[in-house]
Amino acid sequence: MRKIIKYVIADILRNKIVIAYTAFLLVMSLSIFALEDNTSKGLLSLLNIILLIVPLVSIVFSTIYIYNSSEFIELLVSQPLKRKSIWLSLFSGLAASLALSFFIGAGIPILIYQPSPTGIMMLLTGLLLSVIFVSIALFASVTTRDKAKGIGKVILLWLYFSILFDGLILFLLFQFADYPLEKAMVAVSAFNPIDLSRILILLQMDVSALMGYTGAIFRNFFGTQIGIALAFIVLVLWMMTPLWLSLRRFTTKDL
Amino acid sequence: MIITSNVSKKFGKLKALDDVSVTCNRGECIALIGPNGSGKTTLVKTILGMVVPDSGFITFNGKNILHDWKYRKDIGYMPQIGRYPENMTIGQVLDMMRDIRHAKNFIPDEELIESFGLGALIQKRMRTLSGGTRQKVSASLAFLFNPDVLILDEPTAGLDPLASGILKEKIVAEKEKGKLILITSHVLSELDDLITQVIYMQEGKLKFHKSIETLRSDTGEMQLTRAIASIMTN
Amino acid sequence: MIDKRKVTGDMNRLIIGYFILATAIPARAFAKIIKVGKGQVVTHIQQGIDMAAAGDTVLVSEGIYRQGNIVINKPIVLKGVNHPVLDGEKKYELISVKSPGVTVEGFLVRNSGHSSMTDIAGIKIYNTHHITVINNILEDNFFGIYAQQAAHCVIQNNSITAYAKETQLSGNGIHCWKSDSMHISANSVTGHRDGIYLEFATHSLIEKNTVQKNLRYGLHFMFSHNNTYTRNIFRNNGAGVAVMYTRHVTMKNNRFEENWGDAAYGLLLKEISDSDIEGNYFEKNTSGIYMDGSSRIEMYKNVFKDNGWAIKMQASCMDIKLEKNNFINNTFDMGTNGSLVLNTFKNNYWDKYEGYDLNKDKIGDVPYRPVSMYSMIIEQNPPAMMLFRSFITALLDKTEKLLPSLTPENLKDDYPLMKPLAL
Fold first, then answer.
1. What pLDDT is recorded for position A155?
2. Residue C3: what pLDDT?
3. Which residues of C touch A (CB under 8 A)?
4. Residue C28: predicted pLDDT
């Protein structure tokens, strides 16, 4: 399995899109930090990149990669290899290379310019989001045979996680404004890895404001060691669940 | 050596395999023929475990291949269309396969690599290769590990006559070593002097499985093409 | 030859010296020092005080004294050497000052009684004036230093600590009721209910105190007019600082820091009028300033940094002048609950300002609106905080900037500064 990972990573890292993605992140984050005299404002701009661009690139790139490798996957499947290890190798290869891209493109500038708790949290959640969306991409592509359909599907998924979900929540919050929804919100946030990551970053970035009424509930939950640990566990579940489902599909899939 | 028992497979409404039972033995060179969409490739893929049958089972050396993967080390497979990681060079692909399949005391069979002249192209990236060159790579890989069974899906499609000849010679040589060779093809004339058995499929069903001698005597035709043609018309 | 001038000079000096001695000697002759403590004739402090006459000093030596309540009823100096410990064994009030002109200095006062009926304190000043309480350490008392109907008192350099867990079971660090002209300076107060509490206390100066980690308010006053607060630090108190129903308050150069919580404010101004708030520093508070029903307040040169809301100004406020303040890295610069704005904002620096300055006068050419749409949304629907900084809320804020609908039209700074002020 390690051998396949090695070859997948070597293949992806030479991919022009990944190189462009890394360069894009690097240019963006360096210019954000270099041009903004106020570093916390820089972090804010970076936040949007982490919450929008990272999931988008991760999910679309991984999906396209899986579809483009279908013959390669066939070749591997015809070899004396376990399907499980082939699939996990593909996942590990994609996850590792996209996480590496993020680390080089955004992580290193963060560590240089803003090694604060907020920065570290951004780095961690960015890495996790990269991996989570690889995992979601794997699930989407293993369940859809057609490439165009599959790519459409993951773009919809991305839209859902980054915009539609929040819009829906906002709508519900106003529909049910008379009900105490604070605790429910904590639970709801677990259903979207992007929201969960954003709240984790927010807790570092806007700690003062979050101490307000609802914030206190967030803070009481996510601010404690247990809460943060729980949030990370949920994020890891977001990583594992689609992967596990996709693995189950892949092991019995007809190629 | 390979026995498929009542194997059926549906893709949606299409019956790709319908109750196919075949026995393939060591030393045989079997042509798997039939019109396009007759289920040849699907049968090959079920044998390779790439397609899981809906019913029936397949044994390889007496062992059910379901949930097994180790048996594939005895199979060399040349796919119809070989696509590889685009950014890898031929050398890297060969190295990778060696790496994946390496076994103790293993002596790679690099004859095809040499006779196809792939050595000169070793630094070329896969995406720059022509379809024919890719086929050469696929063929080289299938034979590289000196497997007991060779499964070749449309081996000569896309190869120039020269390369096609080299490949045929290699197949004959391997047959002589007592290996089981399974070739799917719809270009029949090329197979004439190679094969010992013919499996004919149509619409997912096994039409017949005969030795070439039986086939010839049944039809009175010496050439495989004619023999098949006469069967189809009858 | 004798220098005449030198002789007369010496004579002059002698005469002056004599006068000094002559005035000093009678005082010395009558002001005794009474030593109290182990190895002394007098071992009870109260006994020492009873023996003393006005103007005497009762000097208490090192040691632990479990002697119940000590009443000072004559103008004397009660002074401890190396902080002798007065232990109230959780039963007694330690020192009760009932005479004017008393000084209490250099004690460690601890373990006063607790009561829900009377306000028991470590040191309590009863209806008198010109008292000095200086350089004491107070530990684990119900109230720390308590002044009732006192005037012209100095409370200085005391370190007051308690370990209260619940507000009901705890008193205030420094408590002044119906007092006037108090001077409270350089004390540190920790762990009480309110750090400094003033009710009907007037014309007083509160300066250089450090008040932190108290259960409720760091500073709490009501009906305490004409007081000045300067260079105090109020940090990490349960609910920050709350001041109410008062006129003519001057607050300068104080720091309000890390007051976190759902009802915590750096500074809560309720019904405050005719006051100056200048040169203060608000950092990391849930709300830097919360203003309700206040009027005629001038705020200059304050810094608001890293707060949740720099200022929450309820619509009930009027004639607030906000000028030349720095707003840096606050989650929200301003929150409000209404659309009526009768206040003026001018020449502040807002780090979120995205305008331009074409004529290079260092003042932005377009007004800045410190109330963002999303802060209005959160005001109405607190759980919506969950979506803060998401793409959709950024979108909402941008549209609101182009077409204001929710945010108050007049709440704006027409002359925002392009660069922060050096404060």
1. 96
2. 53
3. 260-262, 264, 284-287, 306-309, 328-332, 351, 378, 380-394
4. 47
Cβ contacts (< 8 Å) between A177 and chain C: which residues?
Answer: 380-381
Please tell me the distance from the alpha carbon of residue A182 to that of residue C253, in angstroms, as a whole number: 38
φ, ψ for residue B159, nearest 5 deg: -90, 145
Least confident interval from C80-84, C301-305, C379-383: C379-383
Q: Distance between CA B4 and CA B56 in Å, rounded?
A: 8
- Domain residue ranges of chain C, discontinuous segments joined by +: 33-238, 256-366+413-423, 372-407
The model's pLDDT over C293-304, given as tens digits with 9 standing for 90+, comes to 999 999 999 999
What CATH fold (topology level) applies to the domain C33-238?
A: Pectate Lyase C-like (2.160.20)
Give percent of chain B with pLDDT exceeding 90.
13
For C178, list phi and psi in degrees, rounded to 5. 50, 55
Tens-digit pLDDT profile for residues B93-115: 888 888 887 766 677 888 888 99
Kindly report the CATH number assigned to the domain that includes residue B172.
3.40.50.300
Please determine, for residue C1, whether its predicted confidence score (pLDDT) is greater than 50.
no
**C158 closest CA partner among C101, C83, C222, C223:** C83
Task: Please tell me the total number of residues recorded for chain A in this structure.
Answer: 255
Three-point CA angle C103, C105, C109, nearest 5°: 120
Alpha-carbon distance of C350 to C372, in angstroms, equals: 13
- Judge contact between A27 and A111, C-beta under 8 A: no
Domains held by chain B: number = 1
Q: What is the distance, to the nearest Å, from the Cα of residue A85 to the centroid of all Cα atoms in its chain?
A: 23
Euclidean distance between CA atoms A91 and A85, whole angstroms:
10
Whether the CB-CB separation of A194 and A55 falls below 8 Å is answered with yes
Contact C233, C207 (CB under 8 A): no
Q: Would the CB atoms of C383 and A185 count as touching at under 8 Å?
A: yes
How many helices (DSSP H) and strands (DSSP E) are in chain B?
7, 10
C-alpha distance from A83 to closest chain B C-alpha (Å)? 8
Chain A residue whose CA is closest to C396:
A167
Chain A residues whose C-beta sits inside 8 Å of any chain B C-beta: 3-4, 7-8, 10-11, 14-15, 68-72, 74-83, 252, 254-255
| Number of separate domains in chain A | 1
Residue B65's domain comprises 2-233
Q: Tell me the per-residue pLDDT of A109-142, one tens digit each, with 9 for 90 and over.
A: 999 988 888 899 999 999 999 999 999 999 999 9
Can you give the residue range of the structural domain that contains A74?
Answer: 2-251
CA-CA distance, C254 to C5, in Å (whole number)?
57
For residue A194, the chain C residue with the least C-alpha distance is C390
In this complex, is the C-beta atom of B85 within 8 Å of any C-beta atom belonging to chain A? Answer: yes
Nearest to A189 by CA among A211, A206, A214: A214
> Is the ipTM above a cut-off of 0.95?
no
pLDDT digits (tens, 9 = 90+) for B154-173: 888 888 889 988 998 898 88
How much is the pTM?
Answer: 0.81
